[in-house]
Amino acid sequence: MGEAMFRIIIALLVMALGSPAAAQVPGADPPPPPAAAPSGATEAPLPTAPATTRLEDLLKPTFRVRGLIETEAVAAAQSAQSKADIGDIQNGYGFRRIRLGVQGGIGDTAKWVSEVELAGGDVQLLDVFVGLTAVPGVRELRIGRFREPFSLEGMTSVNYLTLLERSPLNPLDPARNWGVCGYWWPDSERYTVSAGVFRNGTNQTGNSIGDQDAWAYTGRVTGLPVYEPEDAAFRLLHLGGAFSTRNPFDGLVVFNPGRAPSLLAVVDNPDSPFLPAVQIPASSQQIYNLQAASVAGPCSLQGEFFATTIDQIGAGNVFLYGFYSQVSYFLTGEHRGYDRTRGAFSQANVLRPLVGGRAGPGSGFGAVEVAARYSYYNFSSPNLPPTPEGASSRAILNQMELGVNWYLNNNTRLMFNYTLPFVDRLGVGSTAVNVFGLRAALFW
User: What sections of 243-300 are H helices per DSSP?
Assistant: First the structure.
């Protein structure tokens, strides 16, 4: 009996001190089982050592497929005068986005994303980056091609946009470029700070070739003065701002290059088809943003102000600005989701998703959301150069949009939009266009 007790004490000491002998090397054969006690023995069985967290477990790679399909029809109704003023805007039927990618991580040390756009028949890189998440002093250090941290609607994934497209001010958002960016937030996740250096004008292959000084420096700060996450009375107040100073690629700041051939613009950051194309020779550009949003249960308000100053070569500075204001409401009681470490809106949780076949408890009709947005874009700086055709490029855009979204579940929805832009081309005249859009969207 004394020998059995001695063995038990030795085993407990080994467990307490974490002896390497207690751990099994991955891939090695397991240790042989203890010999059976002789028949009739009264010894107590040795205690089993508990499983311990291994270094290999902390560095275990993860892998997940992601993707998005958006198929839609967009049509415009124009008068003969409208076609004469801004051109015959073509209808579009097909795919707005077809995205396929993978993402994963290496424990809590790093994460990665690799995603491409297939719509339009050409393979275009979207987000392709490595994020280092164990570097001291920063929550994440991201290197690769990804969105520069700037506007609220720009940082909100297209999977969660309330209307078919971002506002017509979105071309003032730098969008995606190759760069290095750091992200910070406290444990409470009540504010975010991000700052990075980017290669301005990175093409859709993710590369920027040349020795010109086409660098951009971008920063963003957001805060959550109010955040009450209880689903029954979800409330938040988002405030933020962003700034970017940029050296233009090839010494040109370009708006609306080549004009989209139709309303179905298969590009990452489309310009408004209702504004003229213009190229501004410039030595530098500064972009400013102020953003605010509020959610109170099913009701959401969102607005942003954009402005840019362009240091034009051979002429005076160009100043362009505008804003949008948006409201949305879930008729079925849901609320918009919010990602506190990104400072942007995220997935809404459908309370009663539509389920085919024999629907069980908790299923229903899905969720219904209605939305409206007003945008104002002052594109009328007196120092704007003329269009490539020699006409005046100065214009003011007032745009109204109405939308209805039917969420079948968290990942599938049907979207209908009506858009009414009023375009005042200075020296040309005013015109209006009626645009109707229908989209089926599914992401995973």
Answer: none
